[in-house]
Protein: PE domain-containing protein
Amino acid sequence: MTATPTTDSGFNPADALDAATIRQVRTDVDNLAQLLHDASSEVRSVHLPAVDDAAIADWVSIAQLSYNLNRLALSGMLETAAAACTAVAWQYETQLTLLDGQIVAAEVL
Structure:
């Protein structure tokens, strides 16, 4: 069901609610949040340790400084990506309660 704009002053936005559509949106939002949590977890458990494991301890040169600096930058970017995934997942999860309310409203109407 698609809501269409109207100039009718008797239009009630609740008339456009469709419980099945809102349930599908809720399921999709819940799935996206879980995927983001999984991505964050993978970054922290797989990719960050891989960057740490790439350290080369037994060498001394100017290249080592550059190499270590790049590894630290990459670690920082991965941490930021993991935190961003978690933050967006939390945003999606806060919407679930609102969607639950809309489902109830749609079923009542």
Remarks:
- Residues 36 and 87 are 9 Å apart (CA to CA).
- The mean pLDDT is 88.
- Helices lie at 19-53, 62-108.
- The radius of gyration is 23 Å.
